[in-house]
Each structure stands twice: as structure tokens, then as C-alpha cells.
Amino acid sequence: MKKFASILLVFLISFSFLTAFAKTPDYLEGFDSADFKITYEIKVNKISDFLFAELAKELGFEDKSALDNLNLSFTGKVEAYGDLPKAKMYVKAPKEELQKIIGALNPTAEAIGDYEVWIDLDFTDLQNMVYKVILKTPDEEKYIYLDFAQYLNVSQPGINIDFSKLEQAAKEKLEPIVEGYKKALENVKTIEEYNEKTGDYKFVIPASSIYEALNILVEYTFTNFDKIVGAYIDYMKEIDEEAANSLKEVLPSNLELLSYQAMAKMVVQTIKDMDIFADDALVISASQNKEKNEVYMKLALNIQTNLYDALGKSTLMSEQELKETFPIDGVNVKKEDFDIDLSVSINYEFSNLNAAKVDFPVLTEQNSIDYIKKIAEEQRLYEINQNFYINVNDKRVLFDTAPYIDNGTTFVPIRKLMNALGVADDKITYDNGVVQIYGDNLEITLLINSTKAYVNGQEVQLLSAPIIKDDRTYVPLRFISENLGFKVEFDSFGEGEYKFYFINIYSEDYYNEYYNFEYDDITDEVNDAA
Q: Could you tell me where the DSSP H helices lie in 33-133?
């Protein structure tokens, strides 16, 4: 069943690609802004109870009825102008829609809120392009802000790109390749219907045309491989000549190309042998309600096959694998139980045409997180901690100054460690070289530059003394953690600057839940797996 799930994923990806063949009526290109609703839907027309249950189990659904007419909707607004990418968009995934998926995967789980995304694109002036994304998730109080255009400009100071020249290179080098693909596909049979009176439109790619198109794409790609790759390398030279030259060095040989071409043809033939599409394999339909100022579109991929025959006709499963995976006994499970008739579709509803407007939230330093800067800061912290992998309950702790080891004791900055262990800042005091930490019925006292420490007033001797280094107070990790009730595991390997330290810190509850298995529990898991 896992092989079938992978095959279905390939077809869904192909579905998205094949929509590029479609032409839409002129009136659908006549609006620049709209409110929209997009619904992804799986409609099951025919499937046996046996196969239905197997698919639900394979896809991880605990509630098998969730596969019946499964759909997920998003709403939003869009403004798009001109042929060049210039658009503003707002998309909302409502909590109740997300619950459909989450509840099906785990009936006891609940969606915690809406997800919202704002996108602002303007590539009409590549020298001053706009590429901004704002996210609002229910698990984060602040807006998450990403300015990709600024990131591209500041993160590559050594690369000076002439965007006008780049645009010209795209037109000269890449556009002819795209036109070549379009021309190669011109004779692929399609069915197009348009009723001028009603405004209804239908575009169909039959199953036979899908196989023909895939073969044409394979043939065109490998026949023109040198020209296609050469055009791409010439284009890349305008961005990074060194990278373009490096690409030349890893190009496949003629013998390797022949091998890849044979493999690609074999994949297409396997898809054809499986014969999984209905006659109207890909259907794009549209209609317009001028009175309500609305437009509707639907892209549907229709699958109609017998799964047993499909896998048997292909090279994906041997006869023995088929028998083991699908135990047909003629009584409880019959060959007809593997019949599938379903459609996977995307439905578009556009309203408020040419009057919709995308409003962006006003961002401040207080209500937003600059995620690009956050990533850069995390990268800086990873470099600081590159030799130390310190985890609390399997979550890595990144210190802003480097941990170190002295006399067999690992020292880390106190505040970050305490916060990771669940100790708030107000439970830590500093006074004239004396550091005190307060926990439940616990008081730890450390003396800077002294190996003496105290736990609830009882003196303890440390191997090395806490110190102040790089404006940070460093304390012994194991001593603090274990006295707060945590379990510490230490490991290391390598030598010199390539020596790495792995320190895992676990709370008692976490350790017992995930690591402290009894032998009988492990035996039960092995038996279940067998």
C-alpha cells in the first residue's frame, strides 16, 4: 500500500504540471482583484469497504469516514497586475477547516486556531523588487515577518547583479526553451468546449493524451539536453559565473544521458501500463455569473482503475508481492474490491471582481518577529555552539557565548541554562559574587571564583569554580541540573578542534515517558512489529 501512496503522490504532482496545457476563456483573464475561496477535494465515487479501510489505514486516518468526500477550504483576497509578477495576497486557513484533517488523523486532537498569510510581490523592477511574507499562527502571539528581497540584497554583498541584463538573458536564453516545449506539445489531443451564450467552458485532456504528452516531454528534454542546459548555464552566468562553470563540470556524460532517458521512458511506460486514469483524465471547467460578479473554476484529475490490475500490469510489484499484499480469496476479498473511481479536484470561487483590496497588518518591533534576522541569529548561535550539543528534553539549547570544559566539568552561562530547565529569572539572584538559585524546597548558592557551593545550606565541593567570562556568569551544568532533579547523560568523540560534546538533560517525567522502557515493554513492541 505504501507503494501505491507514493504512486498517487507522483500523479498529483503530474496533475499540477499538466494544467499548464489548459487555455481559459478571455473573460477569466479580465479581472485584476477578487475575493476567493479555494477548496481542495477528494470525491470518492466508487470504492469497496475493504479498500476504503486499507487506504484510511495507509494514510494515517483513524476516522475512516474522513476519506469520504474529504475537502479543505481556504479563503482570502488577491490583487494581481500585468504579465510580470506583481501581486498582493491574503490567505486564511480557518480553524474549523484544519480540524477536518487534524481530527481525522487523531480524533482526540484539536486545531488551536486560524492560520493567516499575507504576501506582497513586485518583480517589475528587479533592482528594487518587493518580496514580503507575513504569517500569523495560533501558537505565536506575534506576526512572523520575512523580507526575502532585503535578505537577498544584504546576504550576498559580493554578488553585484545587473537585473536588467538578467531579465534580457531570461528572454534570450530561457524563453525559447519554454516555447520549444509548448510547440512540441501542440499536437497533443485535447477537447475544448465554450458556450458563448452561457459562458460555460470545459477543457479536457484524455488519458491517452497524458501518456503522449509525457513521452513528448521526455523525448524533447533529452534530444535538446545540450541546448536546454547550455541556455540555463548562460543565464546563470549573469548571476554567478563561478557557479555556472561548476555546473558544467558535473554534467552527465552521453552514456549517462542515454541511461537516464531509458529510465524516464520506462517510468512513462509503467504509468501507461497501470492505466489508472478515467477517459476524461484531466478536466478544467469554468463559468461566470455576471450579475453577481463571480467566476468559478474547477481543475479535476479523474482516476478510474482496479488497483490489483494496475499494480500487476506494472513492474512495481511482483506476483508474489501482490498475493502477500492483497490476499484475494474469492469470498471475503474479491478482485472487484480493488475497483477505484475517484476525483481529486481544486475548486476556485472568485467574487467581488476588480473591487477586492488586500489590507496588510501594521508591524512594529513589539508585535512582530523579523524571521530572516532570527534565522541569522540562530546561525550565529549554531556557530558559537558548534562543538557542544546540549539538549534539555531533546530540545537543543543555544548559548550566546560558548560553553567550555574545565577539569572534567562542563560550564555554561547560567541564565540560558536556568530558563531551559524551567527556572524563571526572578528565581536567580546575584549579589557581590554570590549567585543564588531557588527551586521547589531548594536553594543553591554558588560563589564566583570559589569551589565551595551550598545546597540548602550544606557545603559541597566543586571540581572547578564558577567564573564570569564574556560578561556571562558560568556555572557547572551537571551540578545545577542534577540538584534541580534532572538526569544528565554525557558523551563525546573526536580530538582537538574537532572534538564534539553531546549532553542530554532529562526531567524525570520526560525520561520515564520516552526512554525508561521496561524490558517487557520493548518485547511487546518487537512482537507487535513482527
A: 49-58, 95-105
User: Which amino acid is residue 325, in one-letter code?
Assistant: T
Contact 461, 451 (CB under 8 A): yes
Predicted TM-score (pTM) above 0.70: no
Going along 27-99, which residue ranges are E strands?
33-47, 70-80, 86-93
Q: Are 238 and 166 in contact (CB under 8 A)?
A: yes
Buried b / exposed e over 321-351, threshold 16 CB at 10 Å, is ebeebbeeeeeebeeebbbbebbbbbbbbbb
Residues 164 and 161: their CA atoms lie apart, in Å, by 9
Cβ(413)–Cβ(424) below 8 Å: no
On whether the CB atoms of residues 196 and 228 are closer than 8 A, the answer is: no
Residue 188 three-state SS = coil
pLDDT tens by residue, 307-316: 888 878 776 6
Among 212, 222, 207, 214, CA closest to 188:
212
In this prediction, residue 8 carries a pLDDT of 40
Amino acid at 296: Y
3-class DSSP state of 281: strand
pLDDT of 417 above 90: yes
